[in-house]
Amino acid sequence: MAAKLLVVEDEPAVREMISFVLKQSDYDTLEAEDAEEARAHLAEQVPDLILMDWMLPGMSGVEFTRELKQDAATRDIPVIMLTARGEEDDKVRGLECGAEDYVTKPFSPRELAARIKAILRRVAPHATEEMVEVGGLQLDPTSYRVSVGSQEVDLGPTEFRLLHFFMTHMDKVYSRSRLLDRVWGSNVFIEERTVDVHIRRLRKALEPYGVDGLVQTVRGAGYRFSERQVAR
Amino acid sequence: MAAKLLVVEDEPAVREMISFVLKQSDYDTLEAEDAEEARAHLAEQVPDLILMDWMLPGMSGVEFTRELKQDAATRDIPVIMLTARGEEDDKVRGLECGAEDYVTKPFSPRELAARIKAILRRVAPHATEEMVEVGGLQLDPTSYRVSVGSQEVDLGPTEFRLLHFFMTHMDKVYSRSRLLDRVWGSNVFIEERTVDVHIRRLRKALEPYGVDGLVQTVRGAGYRFSERQVAR
DNA sequence: GGTGCATGTAATCAAATTGTAATAGTGGTT
DNA sequence: AACCACTATTACAATTTGATTACATGCACC
């Protein structure tokens, strides 16, 4: 559930430091020392964000970022560029290649964490670990708890993820295939109808607390999570 | 009371970074950007260890260290010198002035923590920590004792650390891999399933006192320590 | 060298979860 | 009313995941 970040940095001490800071801020980290190793990671799993050193042996961070922005599979992953002091003039070029933000080394852990959080909130709100509350329903990603008032709701892992996704993406219809992408993960080979079943399971779990009406069916389009009641 | 460390470093980002790493290792930190500010802190309280940047505006770290070593009140505080890469030749001079150790920037958090720990173990064998209490369960880090009321609970070292970690990180789910990181230490090569076994041992030890329900399993996510009962 | 404790791994068992398929139901249209 | 497309619900088997136990190794202390 915690956001997964990929750190691409050749200097081991710096990489370890960044990774350490991120872990303390409850992110999961993957590490790579160059573009090649990073590609290997990306082929396996798509992180929520990439921290990319400006200077890399072989292909530079800028070139690599540009490459990522051209591939549909990685285009949407936000990139934060790490530049050394004095390379600040290159800021413009860094952002030009498609990076979301840049941070100059040495950086303070608070600053780094803040920038990451800001970006994640924008592009992947469900990865921020913040408590969500909708219509009396509370979900706390940190403790993995869902409750209505003081009553705890019992959910399976998939229903939990599904609910979390919905709660962080209110009032928008998602098709089954889109839900499979966002909740199950891209490139999974699963029947679309399976989504129906999990929707059912989620509704059933919410039913005793009278909040199952939040999960709404939009015929022909998909599902939606909304506080506004549907006309009957 | 955790050990108190004084960080003397003029670059704010680096100072914050060091401070951050130390706090995660459960140290208290004081910060100073130059010799003058450091003296002000020292006049008030004597830290257990000083991390000193080699280069400081005004009086250099070396000079300042020498000064400290001449004052009876501060003579016994161990000093770790921070040098930038390339200044390594100065290592000798650094140690000459009385520093116990030196670390070159950039450094890995593990390395820094390890060196600090080594020195503190030698110099201040009892950097005492605070007693924790949750739901009738008491844990005293200094005496390595766990008790429920007047009854003592018998725990192995690993279970003790695990419990201590849990008690100081309540209501939050930790995956097996994260527990390995935080309780066993980073980068240990241990099977994730091993965590299960230690959880089991911990629960078994707590069972006779009726507090084993505090250790909760969150399917698909990890384990959690919480006073709130699980819904079932 | 022996003993006992602590620890990590592997094997086994039990239970929860998951995806699919089959069937029933719904709503809208002609 | 019959039909069609789509969704809801249920049952089920396979898979995953966690609990528990037994075992081998390593280490400290006799």
From TrEMBL, chains A, B:
<dbReference type="InterPro" id="IPR039420">
    <property type="entry name" value="WalR-like"/>
</dbReference>
<dbReference type="GO" id="GO:0006355">
    <property type="term" value="P:regulation of DNA-templated transcription"/>
</dbReference>
<dbReference type="InterPro" id="IPR011879">
    <property type="entry name" value="Sig_transdc_resp-reg_PhoB"/>
</dbReference>
<feature type="domain" description="OmpR/PhoB-type">
    <location>
        <begin position="129"/>
        <end position="227"/>
    </location>
</feature>
<dbReference type="GO" id="GO:0000976">
    <property type="term" value="F:transcription cis-regulatory region binding"/>
</dbReference>
<dbReference type="GO" id="GO:0000156">
    <property type="term" value="F:phosphorelay response regulator activity"/>
</dbReference>
<keyword id="KW-0597">Phosphoprotein</keyword>
<keyword id="KW-0902">Two-component regulatory system</keyword>
<dbReference type="InterPro" id="IPR001789">
    <property type="entry name" value="Sig_transdc_resp-reg_receiver"/>
</dbReference>
<dbReference type="GO" id="GO:0006817">
    <property type="term" value="P:phosphate ion transport"/>
</dbReference>
<dbReference type="Pfam" id="PF00072">
    <property type="entry name" value="Response_reg"/>
</dbReference>
<feature type="modified residue" description="4-aspartylphosphate">
    <location>
        <position position="53"/>
    </location>
</feature>
<dbReference type="InterPro" id="IPR036388">
    <property type="entry name" value="WH-like_DNA-bd_sf"/>
</dbReference>
<dbReference type="InterPro" id="IPR001867">
    <property type="entry name" value="OmpR/PhoB-type_DNA-bd"/>
</dbReference>
<dbReference type="GO" id="GO:0032993">
    <property type="term" value="C:protein-DNA complex"/>
</dbReference>
<dbReference type="GO" id="GO:0005829">
    <property type="term" value="C:cytosol"/>
</dbReference>
<keyword id="KW-0592">Phosphate transport</keyword>
<dbReference type="InterPro" id="IPR011006">
    <property type="entry name" value="CheY-like_superfamily"/>
</dbReference>
<feature type="DNA-binding region" description="OmpR/PhoB-type">
    <location>
        <begin position="129"/>
        <end position="227"/>
    </location>
</feature>
<protein>
    <recommendedName>
        <fullName>Phosphate regulon transcriptional regulatory protein PhoB</fullName>
    </recommendedName>
</protein>
<comment type="function">
    <text>This protein is a positive regulator for the phosphate regulon. Transcription of this operon is positively regulated by PhoB and PhoR when phosphate is limited.</text>
</comment>
<keyword id="KW-0805">Transcription regulation</keyword>
<keyword id="KW-0238">DNA-binding</keyword>
<feature type="domain" description="Response regulatory">
    <location>
        <begin position="4"/>
        <end position="120"/>
    </location>
</feature>
<dbReference type="Pfam" id="PF00486">
    <property type="entry name" value="Trans_reg_C"/>
</dbReference>
<keyword id="KW-0963">Cytoplasm</keyword>
<keyword id="KW-0813">Transport</keyword>
<keyword id="KW-0804">Transcription</keyword>
<keyword id="KW-0010">Activator</keyword>
<dbReference type="InterPro" id="IPR016032">
    <property type="entry name" value="Sig_transdc_resp-reg_C-effctor"/>
</dbReference>
